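Appendix B: complex inputs.
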Amino acid sequence: MDLLPPLLIGCAAGFSGDRTDAAGPVVDTLIARLGKRPAAGSAFLIFETLAERTLALAQLRRRADPQAGYEPLLDDMLRPVLARCLQYGIRIVSNFGAANPHGAARHIAAMAGELGLRVPRIAVVVGDDVSGERHAGLLASHLEPGCDATHIVSANAYLGAEQIGAALDAGAEVVVCGRVADPSLTVGPAMSYFGWRADDWDRLGRATMVGHLLECGAQVCGGYFADPGYKDVPGLDRVGFPIAQVDADGNCIIGKSDGTGGCVTEATVKEQLLYEVHDPARYVTPDVVADISAASIRLVARDQIQITGVRGHPRPEDYKVNVCLEGGWLAEGEISYAGPRAEARARLAADVLRKRLDGMPIRVDLIGRLSVFGDDGGELLAGIRPGAGEDIRLRVAAHSPTRWQAQRLTQEVTALYCCGPAGGGGIRTALTPRLNTVSCLLPRSAVPARFEMVAGHG
Amino acid sequence: MAELVVPLFRVAHARTGDKGDRANISLIAWDPAFYAPIVDQVTPEVVARRFGHRRPSGVRRYLLPNLAALNFVLDAVLDGGVNEALNLDAHGKTLSYLLLGLDIRVPACLGPKLAGPG
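Resulting structure:
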């Protein structure tokens, strides 16, 4: 099988809410590169749209509407490219199924019909949702003491690449997942295409890091990187999304879609390689423990970086499960002061709020002086001498178990209009329900991961 | 040997990631020649002090000489993380620039390799 052409995987979304016009240039580039050789199922398009709490929000939407609960931007992301993907044999793998993979699959089948296309073979990967009755006892026994299981909004195991690979082996052209580990969206296609075994640790480790580089979309192509004068990025307003070319050993060259802005350099790749990594020798996924401690990178052409030296170690025994629980309310309020003595007036407003909200611990920020670098306890702010800031936005925030308690803060901020210091303006307040996430481990045998072919038979 | 004292952002770039109440900050030398002074001076103790007001319960440092990079892992530094923190930036995404504000000493002969306009 060493005559197989390299595998091409493009990524067109790095989170729920990413740009919906990203996929077009990625698909165009995949088609251009396929043009020089037989397709043979060697190109994939992935969308990564599930952050830690995205799934809990999706679960809440599904409770309100049984047809909902998958990625709200699914249609905007996929419709512009579905016809070309089917025409050129570019298969699609994504976790945009969120809390309702079957709903997403129905949507895609309907979309194909509306576009006058044949309905593609669509598989859904299921089994990640362990929030039901069947797992309640097991989950409660695996959660930390003090975690109230009655407040569970969602509980999902991070599945791996095996079910994705199996669905592709069975002929799926679109694979819709809920919660899977982000890199598995890349490892699944690689396992299927190259026929790797599930214990081929070094190759799985390399493909996992390819997936890691792709999974945040533009973040490896100059997105989230630019710093004028230090890290200049051309055409950031039309930054390209990444495409990896993977060989049969899992080594890769990472590049980006043609005709777009951004850049792929040693610096952009290094930042993304280490993004959200703790011990570089132990990057743990359900598929493998990847090891980048001896990884090397090399510029091979403009916007083309080669990664080598990644290794892999046996995968963990258990699945990691992410549990989201109802977590009370976040109350926030802001008001601006400008001109002479603005900072002094903002500080006086903060004092008024502290006295009025006696017993409610509040965080205070003086935006324009010190905010995000500070700490909730206010230690850093307390160490800064009052200054002569002339454009200061006071922000206060607090956490409360109930909505009506949280409302005390927003009401007191609003009252600053007539009862606070002079010249305050631009008040905004917000009350937001919070979700707490905790994680636990469940044995693989307790999580019935599988795929189902749901559309496009025959 | 003559030395220059410069802000860390002239010798390295950085990106923050978060998982729960734990942040990691990569610190990547602009030139391999800067790697040794960074390893010598940007120690876990120095980083723990820089983030002292966030009361990290632990700071670990991992070295990646092939990449001329370091990875810092700061435990319990996000005021509870995105679940509980009251910070506008509950993920701690801005914190790479708090690290990059440290000063570092480099041999004067490396001056031409410094990044940025100064």
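Chain B is about 15% helix and 35% strand.
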